[in-house]
Amino acid sequence: MLTDGHHGRGIALGHIASLVSSAPADAMGLRHRKGRIATGLDADFAIVDLDREYAYERADVRSSAGYSIYEGRRFKGQVMHTLVRGRFVVRDGALGADSIGSGRYIRRAL
Questions:
Q1: Residue pair 41/31 in contact by the 8 Å Cβ criterion
Q2: What is the sign of the dihedral through the CA atoms of 87, 93, 96 and 101?
Q3: What 3 state SS string does 5-43 have?
Q4: CA–CA dist 26, 109 (Å, integer)
Q5: Model confidence pLDDT, tens digit, residues 2-57
Q6: Which of 11, 15, 39, 92 would be 5's cystine partner, CB 3.0–4.6 Å?
């Protein structure tokens, strides 16, 4: 979204945030818990360096598949930190060992 959408096509960051955050939360009936910055909602954030360029390599793959269709592709705009419920799970681009298994199921109301 950042490389092709924002940098490549000029899509506004607010619109991208809506596409990847508030719109999916609304579609899943989770507006009361997710997708916005507001008191009482989960404090989930991605902090991005918009100008940082990088290549996605096999060593970066964090799924059990062990590969990605994006291997070798260059990107502009890298997530540097991620907070879930106000706690760092990614800091300086590295996944924290204590963050594995810290997810929580939220029942949706479609």
A1: no
A2: positive
A3: HHHHHCCCHHHHHHHHHHHHHHHCCCCCCCCCCCCCCCC
A4: 10
A5: 999 999 999 999 999 999 999 999 999 888 888 888 888 887 889 999 999 999 88
A6: 11
Residues 84 and 100 sit within 8 Å (Cβ to Cβ): no
Q: Give CA–CA dist 21/95, Å, rounded.
A: 21
Phi and psi for 100 in degrees, rounded to 5?
-70, 125
Res 108: pLDDT: 80
DSSP H helix total and E strand total for the chain = 3, 4
Query: How many Cβ atoms are within 10 Å of 58's Cβ, its own excluded?
Result: 10
